[in-house]
Structure formats: C-alpha cells, structure tokens
Amino acid sequence: MVTLTGKTLNVEEVKRVIFQKEKVEVAAESMQDVMNSHAAVEKIVQDDRTIYGINTGFGKFSDVLIDACDVKELQINLIRSHACGVGDPFPESVSRAMLLLRANALIKGFSGVRPALIEILVAFINQEVHPVIPQQGSLGASGDLAPLSHLALALVGEGEVFYQGEIYPSLKILEKKGIAPLTLEAKEGLALINGTQAMTAMGVVAYLEAENLAFKSELIAAITMEGLNGIIDAFEEEIHLARGYQQQVDTAKRMRMFLSGSKLTTRQGEIRVQDAYSIRCIPQVHGATWQALDYVKEKLEIEMNAATDNPLIFDNGNKVISGGNFHGQPIAFAMDFMKIAVAELANISERRIERLVNPQLNDLTPFLSPNPGLESGAMIMQYCAASLVSENKTLAHPASVDSIPSSANQEDHVSMGTIGSRHAHQIIRNVNKVLAIELICAMQAVEQRGVEKMAEATRAFYDKGREIVPSITKDRVFSKDIEACAEWLKHC
C-alpha cells in the first residue's frame, strides 16, 4: 500500500502503483488539509468574494462574474468544453499515473476540493478503472487542460474508461463498481484540469522505461565487446576517476562486472591498440546519459509532489493567489533533455551494430550471415537500426523551444511539455528496438567466437536471449525477431 501525503511520492512508489497495481490510500492529516481547504472555498462562495475560477469565467473570460447559483454549472461546462483531446489514447499506464499524480497534488490542501473528489480518484486507482485520454491537444500551460478534462469526464460519468482490457462508457463501469459519479462543486473542475499531470505521468512512465533500457544497453554492449574481442583496459577505474563524473565511473564499473572472467575480451596491443569510440567510450557516453536521467528523475519527483493548479488557497482562504504553477516549463526542459540523452544510446548502439556486421571492420562472417552472398544475414537489420536512429534525431528536436499564444493572448507563452514527453516515449520505444537489433547481432557474433568463453553475466543474459531469438542458421523474417526481442527487453 502506498500512502499519499502530497509531499513524499517518489518514482519507485509510482512504479509499484502503475506496473504492480499496488493500492493507494491518503494519509489522514492530508485529508484534513483537503477538508480545511474546501471549507475555505465554501466560505468564499457564501461571502460572494470574486475569485478567479470559483465565481468567474476562465482564461480570457476571467473578468466575467458568475452568479452563485451557477457555480456548479460553471465547473461541468469547463470540463465538457475543454475535453478537446484528439488522437490515440495514452497507454493505460499513463492514465493510471495521471490519476495518482492528480490525487497527490490535490491532497496538498491548496486546491479547495472536497474529500469526495479525492475518494473517487483513489477508487479508480484501486479498482483499476483508467480513463481513456487522447494524447494530443495540450499546450503544456494552463496545465494539461484537454487531457485532464478527459480524465475528469470519466469521474463525472460522461467519458470512457479502460477496464479489464476493454473500453467502456464510464457510467457503465461506475454503476458496475457501485461508485457514484462525481458532481462537481465550486472550483473542482478547474482544480482537476489545471496541472501538469499528463506530461508528468507520461514523463515518469517514459523515465522508467528509459532507466531499464539504460541498464540493458550496458549489458548488451558487453556482449558486443565479446563479439568484437574488445579491449577491457578502457574500463579501468583509474581512467574514469581521473575525469570525475560519478555516472561514468559507475558505468565503467558495471562493464567490468559484466565482463569479469570473459575469455573473449582482450588487452591493449594483443589484437589492436585501441578500439573505436563506440566501444572505448561506452562509459563516457552511457555515463552522460545517466547524468541526464538523474536530472530528469529529480525534476519528476519535485513535480509529482507539486501544487500545479490555479488559483491556490492559503491561510484558510484569507489569501487566494492566481499564479502560474500550471506552466510546464521545468518538465518540458526535462523531457527534451531525456529525449536527447536516450537517443544517444541508440546512436552509439547503431555504430556498434555496424562494427558487428561490416566485414571491413571485423573478422566475423560478412553481415554475420551463415552463408554469405546466398543469405544476407543481419545486413538489413543495420538498415532498420539506422532508420530508427534517424527518426529519433527528428523527434529529439526540443519541443520546449516552441510556444504559441492561446485564449486571445491571455495565455501567451506555453511549454509544449506534453508534446516533449510524448516524443520522449516514442524515442525510448525506438531505442528499445535498436538495442534489440544490437543484441541479436552480438549474440550471433559471440556464437562465432565461442559462447563457452563468455563471462558468467553475459552468458546468462545470452542464454535468456536465445530463448527469445534463436540462432541465425538461415535467412528468415527478422522483423519478428526484432519485435520479440524488443518486447522482452522492456520487461526482463
């Protein structure tokens, strides 16, 4: 059970909730903060104070006053009108993460919602009911308005949800589960959709996949090292301590561990004096990716515990401030950084693939073919890797350098952070396939060298990999091997 406090949620807890379906609860003191904050909103309505989003319109309509009798209708109108998302839905894992992060933000006690709203969010999580949320349509400032509106639609019984692998009308599943649809009260619609939970949820799911791939990339590179009789000296600790980057030191240490006991690696001068950069500089390049991932993780954990709606309520309602915490710039930058850093894992992997298949760069059979000429072997796998790497270069263009005004120029600078997070996820999926190709080629190369000479760690990974992709004894449809290996790498 993960206990939400609004302050302490971390990536590991999110991982357990998303992928292991761990249930959540709200800390009692946090629920008290929610009640206090809601009481402040009720008093504002009773006192007929003019507060943005409670009894005014939204965006450019912020100067339009709303009668007290219409504040509930104001909130449901907001959700319906802002549910303009288009395109394929986010993966269920992202939808689940959005529920979790929205609940965690609202229990901080700055948003003025009722406990009932928190309870339905928690019920959706614990009963594995996940809103269908289109991926496209958010500018990443004023919050993820369109995606979060689709989340809110599911809560009020007007949207669609994933349940047990199928899509249903939300109301049907609410009735099945005995959950009363939420009726929005003052500020609750705005509190639900003003926030960065779409980009942050997509970001944390992407980060978790990237973290797993970054570890796997080193193990795969170690098998490539063996397939190419790589020089182990380049990973000696002194070299990396001399530069001073801890992530580089750590990567080199893992490479030494993976290759410990291998009879397929060499020492400098035995076969060649130096390896190419894609081999020799694994700690420097992969280590730099880890530096970026550490930065991304830090920003995600701050944002997961942030109050990102507007306005925010302080001092029991005596101070209500309109600000801009919904602006996704910190996450937009982090997503763009992750895009570039993870794309590099594929860039360097593709160069290692080339060294494995190019007969001018090794002494293996050309293109690792069992019958060169008659059979092409891994020739076109390298083409596929090159295509994915090139696509990543386009996707890695920073989304955060763009902005476009909205709401009649009231909202005149936006982050595009949600686009950045989506592109990061696409890049990570492409990198996964490139690494799968490297692994397939590396396994074929070590077979030619002698798998009995492999290190213990790399041999264990090779044996598991061979359960997914059999040895290349003749040409076949390698697309199926690449997809199967990529899927395995995501979960192994």
TrEMBL record:
Pathway, per record: Amino-acid degradation; L-histidine degradation into L-glutamate; N-formimidoyl-L-glutamate from L-histidine: step 1/3
Catalytic reaction list: L-histidine = trans-urocanate + NH4(+)
Residues bearing the modification 2,3-didehydroalanine (Ser): S142
Keywords, comma-separated and alphabetical: Cytoplasm, Histidine metabolism, Lyase
PTM annotation: Contains an active site 4-methylidene-imidazol-5-one (MIO), which is formed autocatalytically by cyclization and dehydration of residues Ala-Ser-Gly.
Sample GO molecular function, one term: histidine ammonia-lyase activity
Cross-link (5-imidazolinone (Ala-Gly)): A141-G143
CDD domains from the UniProt entry: PAL-HAL (cd00332)
InterPro entries linked: Aromatic_Lyase, Fumarase/histidase_N, HutH, L-Aspartase-like, Phe/His_NH3-lyase_AS
EC number per UniProt: 4.3.1.3
Subcellular location: Cytoplasm
Chief place of localization: cytoplasm
Pfam family membership, one: Lyase_aromatic
PROSITE patterns on file: PAL_HISTIDASE
Transmembrane found in the keyword field: no
Record family assignment: Belongs to the PAL/histidase family.
Alphabetical list of NCBIfam families matching this protein: hutH (TIGR01225), PRK09367.1 (NF006871)
Annotated protein name in UniProt: Histidine ammonia-lyase
